[in-house]
Amino acid sequence: MLADLLVGQTTAVLLVFARFGAALMLIPGFGEHHVLARMRLLLALLLSVLLSPALAGAMPALPRDPLLLAALVAPEVLVGLLLGFAARLALAAVHVGGSVIAMQSGLSAAAMFDPNEATTGTIPGSLLTAAAMTLLFAADFHHLLLRAIAASYAVFPVGAGVDMAAAAELLVRLSAQALATGVRIAAPMIVAGLVVNVGLGVMGRMVPSLPVFFVALPLQLLLALLILERSLPAAMALFGADFGRGIAWLGGAA
């Protein structure tokens, strides 16, 4: 009797760990490249031990067949990946906005190492990403992420599986929203760059001897820095709204 109880509790922890571990590999803040994978898995294991008693009623009976147990674990991993990727798309919006700003300002050639992506990135993109990560922890958004994963058991019960068509539709919709948010973040620079380019083109036609390219580059750089400074609060507000949509599809249970 005691052995069955211990095995059942261990299995419950394993099932919770499968979802939390997969989600923590991708969600913003915890799933960054500079965070050790072992630390992420250790955090997921600790959270699984803490939450498994509260989710004991949602756990199915322990199957005796290892294949049936694997059939329970695999959907949990898929759900965790779905949760993590859906929340991750909010950071993709910031990267899109930074890339567009870099192209409009002439900063796209000045690449720097982006620790969040573990590769080279643009200076505006790295700045906006660092600001978004700071906002994520300063505003306790990481608590919302963990509560959303715990609340996902009301939407995706253990053993219920995942509707792949609905999951694909969700990811496509959130991806479109992320792209739209990225363009909205870069909208001030797009408009200002258009006005500056039109003005310089007119000046180049009126004064053919004017070195337009030498004048345009420092003007675009100065304009980009000013716009980044003035529009950073609005960009972070857009990031927060997109982040909220990334977990709102759980039905507000978080």
Features:
2 strands; 3% strand; 7 helices; mainly alpha; elongated
Q: What is the topology?
A:
Layout: H1 2-24, H2 37-51, H3 66-105, E1 111-114, E2 119-122, H4 123-138, H5 141-155, H6 164-206, H7 212-248
Antiparallel strand pairs: 1-2
Helix pairs in contact: 1-2, 1-3, 3-4, 3-6, 3-7, 4-7, 6-7
Globally, the shape reads elongated
Oligomer: single chain
Number of helices: 7
Largest β-sheet summary: 2 strands, antiparallel
Helix/sheet category: mainly alpha
Give the overall average pLDDT.
79
**N-to-C order of helices and strands:** HHHEEHHHH
Write out the strand line-up for the largest beta sheet, numbering strands in chain order.
1-2
Helix coverage percent: over 70%
| Measured distance between first and last alpha carbons | 36 Å
Rg, nearest Å: 23 Å
Number of domains: 1
User: Low-confidence stretches at least 5 residues in length (pLDDT < 50)?
Assistant: none
Beta-strand proportion: under 5%
Q: What is the strand tally? A: 2
Question: What does this 3D model show about the protein?
Answer:
By secondary structure, the chain is mainly alpha-helical. The protein has one domain (2-248). It is built from 7 helices and 2 strands, in the order αααββαααα. The chain has helices at residues 2-24, 37-51, 66-105, 123-138, 141-155, 164-206, 212-248, and strands spanning 111-114, 119-122. Strands 1-2 form a two-stranded antiparallel sheet. A hairpin with a 4-residue loop joins strand 1 and strand 2. Helix 3 packs parallel to helix 6 (164-206), helix 3 packs antiparallel against helix 7 and helix 4 runs parallel beside helix 7. The longest helix has 43 residues, at 164-206. The radius of gyration is 23 Å and the shape is elongated. The chain starts with a helix and ends in a 6-residue tail after the last helix. The mean pLDDT is 79.
